[in-house]
Amino acid sequence: MRIARFTYENSQYFGVIEGDPGSEVVAVVEGDPMYTPVKPTGQHVPLGDVKLLAPVIPRSKVVGIGRNYADHAAELGNDVPAEPLLFLKPNTTVISPGDAIGYPAQSTEVHYEGELAVVIGRLCRDVPVERVPEVIFGYTVGNDVTARDLQRSDDQWTRAKGFDTFCPLGPWIETDLDVSDLAVTTTLNGETKQAGRTSQMVHKVPDLVAYITSVMTLLPGDVILTGTPAGVGPMKPGDAVAVTVEGIGTLTNSVVAR
């Protein structure tokens, strides 16, 4: 099931995406699928008539995983960590499909990082690997935008990863998906820059959730960015970056000077 958050005629809704590619409609529902039971309203709106929003705004945090693809670690001259390398992005980094990524004045080297994103569906802590599917609500597409020069200069990554607009999410949440071997592709102005597969992850999704919850409690709506394949690189104001995860969809954003 593909669950979208969107605006239509100046009001905000949740809905289920239905129909074949090119002729999709949104079946509007009452309630928030993440937190409450929902019921159909009977209203159907063409997908092209709505403004898609980030499908979730994490109430507490976005947890990122660094260097989780060996080729990406190598391209930046880093070793692969023996354990998942965790960092946090504030929820104020989250923006919607079609929104602009703001290029901050403090950086001269802002990079795209296309990723599979995991959306947590329930409060959880110390989750065994075998029970991880019980706490996952679904999956979406993420772009872990990074000021690479600040990442190199700072002792930790909060500033490099934490600027407003540095976490585009969308276009919707897919709740029923085998994510063990999906294509992850990023294009910049239509040119393919990243082409990896989730099977290349060093630490797989179940292991990541188990590891993170051994450290911190995850809340409903929290998002895990699972790492990026090789091919990261700079973007600049005026560019358009699009991240596609097979089985979910494409997340497109422009870049503007902040």
Automatic annotation (TrEMBL):
Query: Which UniProt keyword terms apply here?
Result: Hydrolase, Metal-binding
Supply the Pfam families for this chain: FAA_hydrolase (PF01557), Rv2993c-like_N (PF10370)
Residue ranges annotated for the Rv2993c-like N-terminal domain, each copy included: 1-55
InterPro entries, per database record? Fumarylacetoacetase-like_C, Fumarylacetoacetase_C_sf, Rv2993c-like_N
**Where are its TM segments located?**
none
One GO MF annotation is:
hydrolase activity
Keyword Protein biosynthesis listed? The answer is no
Organism superkingdom: Bacteria
What is the official name of this protein in its record?
Fumarylacetoacetate hydrolase family protein
Q: Which organism is it from?
A: Sporichthya brevicatena
